[in-house]
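Ticket #4471: structure output looks truncated?

Reporter: J.K.
Steps to reproduce: submitted the chain below (387 residues) through the standard prediction queue, then opened the result file.
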Amino acid sequence: MGTIVFVHGTGVRLHSYKSNFQNAQKLAQSVGIQDQFIPCAWGDPLGVDFQGKSLPGSLANSDQEREEIERQQQDDNQWKWLFDAPLFELDQFTNPDPDASTEFLPPGSKSKGQEVWDSIRAYQPSLELIGILDRANLKDHWQAAWNEIVDSPIAKEAFEASSHEIPEVCRALARALVAQLHGIAVSSGMPGPYRSVRDKIVNRLLEDWGHYNLALMDWVLRAVRLSTPFVRSYRKSLSDLSALAIGDVLLYQSRGQEIRDFIRAKIESAPTPVTLVAHSLGGIACVELLAMPNPPKVSKLITAGSQSPFLYELGALASRKPGEPLPVGFPPWLNFYDRNDFLSYIAKPFWPEVIDHEVRSGQPFPDSHGAYFGSEDVWTKIREFMR
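Returned output as attached by the reporter:
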């Protein structure tokens, strides 16, 4: 047994990555793959943060914008309370709920809330969280905010009194940490984190703590509400999330090293042997990482819906010039493609050692581009390749 580092592609953010990751892990196990899955979600800390400010046209007279503005104002008001008193929301959970059933505890045992609190108390920031904080210039303030909130007796008491409300109290703790970060940033002469950054930090903490809710989060709902009327009127050919997908590709072309460094850190922290499983733009980054000098140690590379061969043929792959072979020591590479996926390409014409394997999902584009890891046949082929 080893580990599988699962690298997503363009336009993917935590909500969709989480569900895809869980589904892929489940299907892999169903075909007998027992390797440990390691998430590599680079999109939130390093992908584009598109808010639509550059789009032409105005929604000033639309019901959708008025509704959105009102909702944002309510959300901002809640954050204003927390900026003034970061522990305010968390403090509401310190009062035992008279309507909650009493948890029977054998002598010497801990309640569910106490167990979760002990786990969170030992938390160390994930690579994803560090990336989000660094991008927002908040990384240097994290430890101070953490100490201030977590060392408060209010936090501990909230978890002890709220065993039946673990997701809610975890979210309150995450929001308290963000509010404390805001206060530290402002006091040091910096602006506090924008709304989108606040949401990213809260969602990342809940994911790291194991209490992320797969229901649509606030920032997703905002993106859909704001973009749908505009797309319907002015950009009928684009989906509401296409800006993220296009933007990630452009960002990678200009600052791909940051994404490759992120993937490298994930590989180097994973128990060996390491198998890289990467989709779309994630596959490009992995191919380049392994083709450049001083690559991390990887046992097998698996890509799906990858544009690496296409960029290579165009001369747009930074790590390999047209006609240049893969470097000596490049790991065995299995590449999945689907004729219905217009973003998938075959690699064997350029690199004979690559195994190209056709997938026939039967789904139209663009659904075909995201269908690879939802197939049991794909994971069966991966299992055979890994062995």
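Triage note (M.O.): checked the attachment and the full token line is present. The CA atoms of residues 81 and 88 lie 7 Å apart.
Status: closed, working as intended.
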